[in-house]
Amino acid sequence: MPTAIDLFCGAGGLSQGLHDAGFEILWGIDHEEKTKPTYEANHACEMTVGDIREEEPPDLGLDEGELDLVAGGPPCPTFSLVGRSKINSLEGQDNQSDERHLLYEEFLRFVDHYQPRAFLMENVEGMLSAENEDGKPVVDTIKEQIRGERPVADMDLDLNYSVRVQLLDAANYGVPQHRKRLFFIGNRIGSENPDMEQWETHRPPQTEEEKKIKYSRDPSKRSEEDQHTLDGFVDDREDEEFPAFRKNRRSKESWNTVADGILDLPPVSPSGETPPTRADEYELGPVSEYQYWARDRDEGQDWEEQELLNHECRGHNMRDLTLYKLLGEGTSYIIGDIPEEHQPYRTDIFPDKLKKQNPKEPATTIVAHLYKDGHMFIHPNEARSITVREAARLQSFKDTFEFPVSRTHAFKQVGNAVPPLLAQAIGTAIRSEIFNQPIREEEPQKAD
């Protein structure tokens, strides 16, 4: 089994996806103390809380070059448009001099230390348009540093990796959410770095019918003959179990939508409480293919026996609840479309400050700002913002992934995460194309 570590690991979305792709995660690190209970509740490896700039790479019990993958997503707020505007508004600061955008150099320091066969680095789309103080594109600078053609700050690093940089939308890999992120995939063993467009499993809908919820039969009812592996040629089949990552699929499913993702989850006010609060039990079994996968039931377990975790939303005042009710299918999805006298915000600045999620489309990008308010993530059918579990579903965390922290911290952790399904797709491609390992389609055992 290939080995990996996860830098800037957060709650562990990247770790989970790599685990599901067949990697053994040996260690993780993050600066946020509240991520530790979440990470350790869902992963069977040690996680360190600390400033990576002050941490030395730990002894993993491996010789130099034996680690297979260094992965991580350095938090770089100055590369996002929102981050740039906030930093530039601070007296005496600008986004080019802000130290946080150089955290990727710490990622490269760990790559240099372990000399893994491959690496995977994730960042925001805004990095593509970012420039350094000399006016040079940041992405070009990083690629030169990775190839060993340019020094990394004042560090004496020995890097000589080939690298491919791609902007990926999570919706194209089965995640019921549009989320564009930049990925650097590299290796030092002479392999071709995967072109992730060739590993896409989903596409935009071509008809109105394809926007409807994709009903599926219970995967536990599938016969042995339904199961296939990638050890030989596998033709595309309609009853293929989700997810099935392989290169150059001849046919793709239409995007998973908000309805596919969350509409099997019960209302959070089962007795009509106002404001809505939480629910602890499922009321229906899963309906869509994605929901069957997300429930992640043990073999032989009925859905009635499964505990529903983190299905809790924030409280709302009556004005917000009434405004939420105004929005929806057949009227409008953003508050900017309703009459001016009902606007709670200036529409020239916040045209989409209140937004109801469209059940026939993938969700808009789940953000960490959810921990402050949920106005941009209003439930498609209920007058409330989404719950932690619904946000996690839209990020492709399975229902068995627990967030044993306060609701506020849980929302932040979900919003900051790499979608596990997207990470699984990339991890599968790395194993197949860089490491030349046969990939089986059946899902690995879940982490302890």
From TrEMBL:
EC main group: transferase
Compositional bias ranges of the Basic and acidic residues kind: 199-229
SUPFAM superfamilies per record: S-adenosyl-L-methionine-dependent methyltransferases (SSF53335)
Keywords: Methyltransferase, S-adenosyl-L-methionine, Transferase
GO molecular function ontology, one term from the record: DNA (cytosine-5-)-methyltransferase activity
Region entry Disordered, spans: 193-232, 261-281
Listed GO biological process terms: methylation; negative regulation of gene expression via chromosomal CpG island methylation
Enzyme Commission number, as recorded: 2.1.1.37
Protein family per UniProt: Belongs to the class I-like SAM-binding methyltransferase superfamily. C5-methyltransferase family.
Protein name: DNA (cytosine-5-)-methyltransferase
Organism: Halalkaliarchaeum desulfuricum
Gene that encodes the chain: dcm
